[in-house]
Amino acid sequence: MIMNVEVEEEITFNLKDLNEGCGSQDDPMVIKLDIANFTVHKVLVDNGSSADIIFRDVLKKIGLEDANLSPVKTPLVGFGGSEVNSLGSIDLPVSMGEEPRRITTMVRFLVVDTQFANNVILGRSGLNLFWAVVSTYHQKMKFSTKNGIREMSCDQKEAQKCYNLSLRKGEQEERGKRKERNEVEEADDLKRFKLERIEPAEQHKSVELVLGEPDKITRVGSNMNEALETIMIEFLRKNVDMLPR
């Protein structure tokens, strides 16, 4: 039996891979990809993500707003620690590199309708489809093609723009949350204030505590029977000096 064996080139990184004038090695890895015959910028390469994600507004821009999506029930976790339900999944052709060292393959994206600084997130699944290896220190990604190793460098200007935008968005969300918390606290304070107040439970009428002195009055319930009302008024008049003024 004869087996076809592919000879793979070794993917390595060394000091020569460091770009001159390279900024911070802590920048997120941001590249551009060709997706469904459109060049899409601001693609975040995130090998910490188990999913490949494309955002709904990107589908609109490339004319796939009305595409049929396959249902997905599992929510995504990681957007600010909260769960986000995807609208569904879609398979799209994705190309990396330039000819003759170019690879095109189908990638299954989860479609999410939320605001995000990047257009696409390429996670572990997508990276594995391209046999891609990422070095954040070198700010590069390399992958094998039938014509040799191809490399892509991080667009650090775009990466920094996206990062700063995400920070501003996070600050805006935090301000919004603080505002909501303050509004809730104010509402709670108002509720407590209302509960602490002693309010008549029924209609009332004014009664002079000291006959002939109309400035010294109080209120009693108007629904009391005559006998109980008489007892209440006499009690108040006897203890007028103890009542708050």
Automatic annotation (TrEMBL):
Gene3D superfamilies referenced in this protein's UniProt entry, alphabetically: Acid Proteases (2.40.70.10)
Highest taxon listed in the record's lineage: Eukaryota
Listed InterPro entries: Peptidase_aspartic_dom_sf (IPR021109)
UniProt xrefs under SUPFAM superfamilies: Acid proteases (SSF50630)
Protein name: Peptidase A2 domain-containing protein
Organism: Sesamum latifolium
